[in-house]
């Protein structure tokens, strides 16, 4: 049950948002953002080693459907982990959970490396997914609450795009690991999973130095700890940047809670923000189906229809285009705006994917990879923006759970069905070696991406350059000292209209949130 423990007026969000970029922010990016590298490494290793896993002599005797099922199980674990750890992240704090979830991932990926049977492998992949899914909720929450508003869009999109660094690295690593002349084929694929655990331990060493979110702390009655962290960050950033930090006069009044009930969170998301709920669902379903369906089975497609023995080189090129796309386009999400960029990336990548599907019968391994690189150069930034949207447009107390919720339902709808659907298509078409028979999968993915882009065009939120508290007021915000109905109704109406709050004259005795939309 939620119990009010006090009321405070704080300027902490405004102080964090006005910070110039400094080396300290890179600590946050490296310590937290590297989870996507792990996810990319995991998915690519599986996609690259389909032949090794299929062989009964060197692998586990798995079929094409089994490979797709393993991908679906991993995604299912991610959904469960996101929901389970997401609600704990909102209750227990960002830092505690992003350390726990990394530990879960590390243990599970080691278990994967020692798989004796397909069912052990499926179970280990499920547990690995729970750790990664929990990471998404904890990490996206922490990043958005620590990164200044001016940089939040580009940082989020670029960090989510770093998934493809792991994907490219995983693809290249599998080349020697799956080469029987270099390493025994029976242990090469197992070593590939072990490398993921080693990388996770290195990330843990950096992550220990990332502080708890001050925004989470002051809402949960730990304002003194939040104040101490912000003072230390301000001192560090001022020294590193050489700039004198300006004073802020924007404050927010909070009714502190030790915990916030799940019922209140659910009612907030469903009843107060129905448009944003539909928006996030559409974005997550589109990108989840597209990526999980295409990439989980891409290595299988190359080896089944084009007789490619070493898929790592092709996957590395494909992954590199994804990362470069996210990195190159990410600044535009702050400059051009969220709505325009998300709409454009979803619709354009969807149309190009449909064109690729129509051309599929005339493509070879090289030209298919080239078309994929073009499509996903654009799609990568769009997919990353789904996580950015879910982490921005709901109140702070619900942030981790909302990320988890939309990741879970969107991924369950698109990410579990996608690999199974593509795996079935590949098995059905493999006898005739007719790659065009899987084009229907491309068309479905294209349609879902276009739908997501259209929904963004109508329901998207203009969140660029604005504080999180102005996009969606915290549930615990005391927006009017008298709790007047008129004040509450006005805030509700503004939130339904997209979160835009008009700046009140300074002679008013209260202010809605840390500030209004910036000019």
What's the arrangement of secondary structure elements?
Elements: E1 4-10, H1 12-17, H2 23-33, H3 35-48, H4 50-54, H5 64-92, H6 94-113, H7 118-146, H8 152-161, H9 163-177, H10 185-207, H11 214-219, H12 223-241, E2 252-257, H13 262-272, H14 274-296, H15 298-305, H16 312-329, H17 332-335, H18 338-359, H19 365-392, H20 399-430, H21 439-459, H22 468-471, H23 485-496
Antiparallel strand pairs: 1-2
Helix pairs in contact: 2-7, 2-10, 3-7, 3-9, 3-10, 5-6, 5-7, 5-20, 6-7, 6-10, 7-20, 8-16, 8-19, 9-10, 9-16, 14-19, 14-20, 14-21, 16-19, 18-19, 18-21, 19-20
Structure description:
By secondary structure, the chain is mainly alpha-helical. It has one domain: MFS general substrate transporter like domains (Growth Hormone, Chain: A, Up-down Bundle), CATH 1.20.1250.20. 71% of the residues lie in helices and 3% in strands. A two-stranded antiparallel ribbon has the order 1-2. Helix 2 packs antiparallel against helix 10 (185-207), helix 6 (94-113) packs antiparallel against helix 10 (185-207) and helix 18 packs antiparallel against helix 19 (365-392). The longest helix is centred in the last third of the chain and has 32 residues, at 399-430. Mean pLDDT is 81; it is low at 480-519.
Secondary-structure element series: EHHHHHHHHHHHHEHHHHHHHHHHH
What's the number of helices? 23
CATH secondary-structure class: Mainly Alpha
Q: Class by helix and strand content?
A: mainly alpha
Helix content: over 70%
Tell me the name of the CATH homologous superfamily.
MFS general substrate transporter like domains
Radius of gyration, taken over Cα atoms and rounded to an integer in Å: 23 Å
User: CA-to-CA gap between the ends?
Assistant: 40 Å
Overall pLDDT: 81
**Largest sheet data:** 2 strands, antiparallel
The CATH architecture assignment turns out to be Up-down Bundle
Strand content: under 5%
Task: List low-pLDDT spans.
Answer: 480-519
CATH topology: Growth Hormone, Chain: A
Overall number of structural domains: 1
| DSSP strand count | 2
Kindly report the spatial arrangement of strands forming the biggest sheet. 1-2
Describe the global form: globular
């Amino acid at each position: 049950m939620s119990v009010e423990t006090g009321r405070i007026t704080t300027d902490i969000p405004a102080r964090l948002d006005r910070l110039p970029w400094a080396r300290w922010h890179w600590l946050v990016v490296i310590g937290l953002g590297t989870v996507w590298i792990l996810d990319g490494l995991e998915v690519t290793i599986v996609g690259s080693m389909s032949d090794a896993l299929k062989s009964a002599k060197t692998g586990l005797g798995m079929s094409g459907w089994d490979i797709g099922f393993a991908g679906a199980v991993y995604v299912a674990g991610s959904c469960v982990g996101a929901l389970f750890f997401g609600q704990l992240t909102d209750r227990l704090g960002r830092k505690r959970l992003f350390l726990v979830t990394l530990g879960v991932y590390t243990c599970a990926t080691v278990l994967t490396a020692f798989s004796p049977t397909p069912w052990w492998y499926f179970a280990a992949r499920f547990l690995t997914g729970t750790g990664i899914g929990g990471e998404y909720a904890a990490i996206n929450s922490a990043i958005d609450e620590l990164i200044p508003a001016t940089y939040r869009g580009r940082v989020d999109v670029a960090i989510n795009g770093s998934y493809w660094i792991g994907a490219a690295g995983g693809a290249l690593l599998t080349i020697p690991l799956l080469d029987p002349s270099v390493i025994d084929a029976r242990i090469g694929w197992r070593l590939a999973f072990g490398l993921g655990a080693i990388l996770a331990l290195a990330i843990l060493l950096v992550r220990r130095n990332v502080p708890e979110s001050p925004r989470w702390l002051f809402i949960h009655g730990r304002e003194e700890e939040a104040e101490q962290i912000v003072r230390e960050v301000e001192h560090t950033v001022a020294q590193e940047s050489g700039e004198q930090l300006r004073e802020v006069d924007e404050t927010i009044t909070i009714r502190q809670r030790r915990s916030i009930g799940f019922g209140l969170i659910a009612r907030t998301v469903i009843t107060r923000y129905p448009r944003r709920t539909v928006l996030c669902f559409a974005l997550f379903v589109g990108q989840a189906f597209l990526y999980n369906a295409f990439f989980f089975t891409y290595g299988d497609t190359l080896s089944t229809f084009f007789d490619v023995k070493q898929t790592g080189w092709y996957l590395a090129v494909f992954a590199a285009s994804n990362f470069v796309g996210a990195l190159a386009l990410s600044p535009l999400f702050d400059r051009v705006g969220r709505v325009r960029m998300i709409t454009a990336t979803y619709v354009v990548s969807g149309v190009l994917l449909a064109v690729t599907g129509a051309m599929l019968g005339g493509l070879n391994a090289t030209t298919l990879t080239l078309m994929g690189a073009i499509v996903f150069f654009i799609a990568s930034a769009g997919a990353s923006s789904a996580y950015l949207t879910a982490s921005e447009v709901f109140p702070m107390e619900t942030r981790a759970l909302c990320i988890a919720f939309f990741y879970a339902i969107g991924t369950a709808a698109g990410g579990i069905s996608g690999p199974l659907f593509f795996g079935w298509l590949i098995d059905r078409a493999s006898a005739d070696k007719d790659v065009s028979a899987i084009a229907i999968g491309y068309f479905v993915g294209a349609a879902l991406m276009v739908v997501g882009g259209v929904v963004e065009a109508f329901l998207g939120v203009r969140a660029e350059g604005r504080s999180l508290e102005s996009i969606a007021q915290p549930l615990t915000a005391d927006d009017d000292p008298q709790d007047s109905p008129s004040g509450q109704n006005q805030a509700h109406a503004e939130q339904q209209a997209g979160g835009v709050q008009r700046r009140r004259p300074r002679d008013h005795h209260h202010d809605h949130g840390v500030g209004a939309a910036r000019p």
